[in-house]
Every structure is written in structure tokens, then in C-alpha cells.
Amino acid sequence: MPSIFGYGFYILCSYASLCGSALWGFRPFFTVEGRVSGVLPLMVLMRYDSFLVLTQLLDLFGLDRPSISRRFELIYWLLAPRHGLRLLVRLGRSLADSSHSLTSLYGSAGWLERECWDLLGIPFFGNVDLRRILTNYGFEGYPLRRDFPSGGYVEVRYDEDQRAVVEEPLALSQEFRFFDFTTPWISLGGSNIKSYHDGK
Questions:
Q1: Residue 2 to residues 28, 34, 51, 82, 180: CA-CA distances in angstroms?
Q2: What are residue 87's phi and psi, to 5 degrees?
Q3: Which end of the chain is more exposed for a tag (fewer CB within 10 A), N or C?
Q4: Residue 54: partners with Cβ closer than 8 Å, 6 or more residues away
Q5: pLDDT tens, 143-171?
């Protein structure tokens, strides 16, 4: 079984033109910084490489950091079952960059890419089934983006009269925003609570 350092050294030497750097983390996984243009060739080579054998895509998730030019970061979590080693491929991208779909390589990629598109609005070129998966079909916006309001734009409730789920404009009741921090155990004129240390 290759060591974690041998794995990282092999990737850097073999795929230096496709990945930026390798960062070693806690065992048994390490991180590779990828490039947007080379993510599909990099994944194809790593999946069918006889030494790496990264045959499973465990997870795909995204981060939104609006303060930098490449505000979105895609993170692919791969597994080599033969060696028991894991690999994180980090990919920084902007809205103008196109991300290639990995559905032709990994069966689990379709569901995960739909989830990233639904919540962050990251399109995947080559995925023919980019539909809403966690929000309803009429939903506007992408709820995991930092510029999306935390309360949303509409509220959804079940109406007994219509016997259906209805959407209404968001209305926050102001009485729920006032908090009373006074305690009823202390009177306004002074403390009526006797200390246990007084012995009275």
C-alpha cells in the first residue's frame, strides 16, 4: 500500500500541468488544488490510473466567498478503495467559468451536481438533468449564496381551507423581535431575594 506522501508525490509529478499544488492533511487523505480548465482530464486520469484507482466519488460540495474574485469553490471528495486513501480536489471558480460534469465517470455525480446547482447556482456543462432537488420548482434564487437573505423572500404554509400548500410574501411579526430580559424574582424597588449566606 502506498504512503500518503507517495500518493501526493505521484500526483504532483504525473499531473503537474493539471493541478496547482498538493497539500498534505491528516491521514488518510490529502488535498490537491485543481484548475477549472483541467478538472475533467484530471478526474479521468486519476480514475483510470492503475496506481491511484480513485473509483468512487463520495461527495461534492461548494463554498461561496463573495469577497474574492473566484467566489465559488468546488470540493470533490474521492476514495481509492484498494488503498483506503481519500483525496480532496479543490477547485476555485467564478460565475463565468464552466464546470464540466462528472456524470460520465461517477454515477453519484448527477445527484451531487444537482444539489450544488440548486443551492449555489453553479451550472455543470454536460449534466442533462439539472433540476431543483431540495427546493420547490418555483423557487427563485439560490439559498446557500452569501447574498441570499437568511429569511428568504416567501414563506410556505399549508392552508386548511384550500387544502394545499400556499406561498405568501415573507412577513416577520415584530412582537417576536422584542425580548424582555427582566426577571420576575427581583422587584423594581430593590431585591426581595434573601441570600442563603445570610442565614435568615
A1: 11, 22, 9, 10, 62
A2: -135, 130
A3: C
A4: 46, 47, 78, 79, 80, 87
A5: 899 888 877 788 888 999 999 988 888 77
Annotate 160-186 with DSSP letters as a single string: TTTTEEEEEE----GGGG------TTS
Q: What share of the chain is helix, strand, coil (3-state, %, to 5)?
A: 20, 30, 50
CB atoms closer than 10 angstroms to residue 164: 8
CATH architecture of 4-198: 2-Layer Sandwich (3.30)
Q: Which three cell numbers stand for residue 140?
A: 427563485
pLDDT at 196: 46
Q: What is the mean pLDDT of the chain?
A: 79
- Which CB contacts under 8 angstroms, 24+ apart, belong to 36-39? 36/91, 36/92, 36/93, 36/97, 36/98, 36/99, 39/89, 39/91, 39/99, 39/100
Residue 41, C-alpha cell as written in the block:
482530464
For 33, 39, 66, 147, the CA distances from 36, given in Å and listed in that order, are 10, 6, 18, 23
Q: How does pLDDT run across 18-60, given as a tens digit for each residue?
A: 766 655 555 556 777 777 667 888 888 889 988 888 899 999 9
Q: Would you call 90 exposed, middle or buried from its count of C-beta atoms within 10 A (0-12, 13-18, 19+)?
A: middle
Residue the block writes with cell 422587584: 187
For the beta carbon of residue 141, count every other beta carbon within 10 angstroms. Answer: 12
In this structure, the strands spanning 154-159 and 124-125 are: unpaired
